[in-house]
Every structure is written in C-alpha cells, then in structure tokens.
Write a structure and sequence with these properties.
Layout: H1 7-23, H2 36-43, H3 47-54, E1 61-62, E2 77-78, H4 81-91
Antiparallel strand pairs: 1-2
Helix pairs in contact: 2-3
Length: 97
C-alpha cells in the first residue's frame, strides 16, 4: 500500500497514541488531545488545512470564540488521537496492482 504519509511518520503517530493511552492509569477516562500545530506537523500540512479538515469532525473540541458583527471568529481546536487515526485511515491510497 502506498500511503499519503510516510511509513515512519505513521508509525510515530501510532507510537505517540499508544503512549498516551498507556500513560493514563486514572479511573477517569482522559484523552490527551492534539493541537492543530501538532496535527499539522504529523500530516505535513498547514494549520489552516487542519482547521478546515477537522473543524466539524466528530470528537473535536472547539474552544474558540464565535464570529460577531465586527470580529472574525477565532478557532482553538483540540483533536483527539482517535479522530486523527480515523482521518488517516480514510485517506489511505491503495497501490494499483
């Protein structure tokens, strides 16, 4: 299979996500969220692209301010690793045989 992402980068994403799950020994379910900058570095795209792609995705938390009559909205997104995994799985490109 040919990936949009390099195999090493994908492996590092999986390793990061498994460490995040192993580090939480609390009985309260807690997920370490990723910032758009972290996701942009993993996917090698801009933070604007991350905001556009993940802005309305399920599980993403938007901590920003709404748009008003005189001010643009400010987006402060927090993206769970599971949403990033789902996004990568949907974007995999299969090699032609």
């Amino acid at each position: 299979m040919r990936l949009i992402l390099g195999v090493r980068r994908f492996a590092s994403v999986l390793a990061f996500m498994s460490r995040a799950h192993m580090a939480s020994e609390n009985p309260v379910p807690y997920t370490e969220y990723l910032t758009p900058g972290q996701v942009a570095a993993i996917l090698q795209v801009s933070t604007d692209t991350v905001a556009r792609e993940f802005g309305n995705a399920e599980g993403v938390i938007d901590l920003g301010t709404p748009e008003s009559r005189r001010k643009r909205r400010k987006r402060v997104l927090r993206i769970p690793p599971r949403t990033l995994q789902r996004f990568i799985a949907e974007k995999l490109v299969r090699a032609r045989s």
